[in-house]
Amino acid sequence: MELEERIKYAKHALDGIALGDCFGQSFFVPDETAKQRIKSREILQEPWHFTDDTVMAIGIYRILEKYGEINQDELARVFAENYALDWHRGYGGTAHSILHSIKEGKDWREVSSGAFDGMGSMGNGGAMRAAPIGAYFADDLDKVLYYARASAEVTHAHIEGIVGAMAVAVASALFLNKKLGNYCKEGEVFLRDVAEKLPESDTKYKILSAVSVKRESSIDFAVSVLGNGIRLTAQDTVPFCLWCAAYFYTSVEEALWKAVSALGDRDTICAIVGGMVSLYADEFPKQWVDYMEHPENSVFFES
């Protein structure tokens, strides 16, 4: 791909993340209220705001645009600077600690690897921002994997958090290749193709377990097998997102309605799904776009 195409597709993935993030965030209401709104397809008719999911994805996009690769030191700096601009964006407790420490001048390597008593974070934060990497390097899956790992390591040193990012980035690359006519696999085979690229991990095997969850399965069954992000870990979030995207990728709107139906970590699940499926079905619902907060209009987008 030419550089102009890489940037275009990475930006579209970012926009898909932002749309999903904004949409999912608007459903953080009591479960029964959310279920009723989902059943009647009732959207919130007021401005939708994105969370830390999109803020950090903006960081990924900016680094790719500037360097053509993931420069970890610069990515850590951008993450920390954007955090300092507005830390009321839904960051988790560990993210607050890591990003504040980086902003104070600590080395991201030390901070990231020191989380959770030296185990590192296995959270879903690396996955939520990975789609632009898959888009940018879609013609080279080895680079997709390498730079997805690099992007996650800045805040997520645990193998599960890293694999979550790798999985979403690979899936995103495959969706773009599908759109471009360079890949044709569907459903179960798609899920296996993603999993086989990943290091040994619980996340990998949870993705493989998604093969047994059919397209027509109920959301309750899918969540019982795959999780819905309520634990905020990669292995409890990414498998459902991949299942959802694998079977509903032809429509951004339908994929996001399916994604939010899982409840759980609504904004992050929808952000991950939105980033992936936008690379195939690139038409966004116009009314949704009118309500959403746009990344390029935010203070975080400044270079």
- CA-atom Rg in angstroms: 17 Å
Distance between the termini: 24 Å
Listing every helix as H and every strand as E from the N terminus to the C terminus, the arrangement reads HHHHHHHHHHHHHHHHH
**SS content category:** mainly alpha
> What is the makeup of the main sheet?
none
Uncertain residue ranges: none
Helix content: 55-70%
Report the sheet-strand fraction: under 5%
**Count, helices:** 17
Q: What is the approximate shape?
A: globular
Strand count = 0
* Mean of pLDDT: 96
Provide tags for this entry.
303 residues, mainly alpha
Describe, in plain words, how this protein is organized in 3D:
With 303 residues, the chain is mostly helical. The chain is built from 17 helices and no strands. The chain has helices at residues 3-25, 31-39, 52-67, 72-85, 93-103, 108-118, 125-128, 131-136, 141-153, 159-179, 187-195, 202-209, 219-226, 238-248, 252-260, 266-277, 286-291. The mean pLDDT is 96.
Task: Give the arrangement of secondary structure elements.
Elements lengths: L2 H23 L5 H9 L12 H16 L4 H14 L7 H11 L4 H11 L6 H4 L2 H6 L4 H13 L5 H21 L7 H9 L6 H8 L9 H8 L11 H11 L3 H9 L5 H12 L8 H6 L12
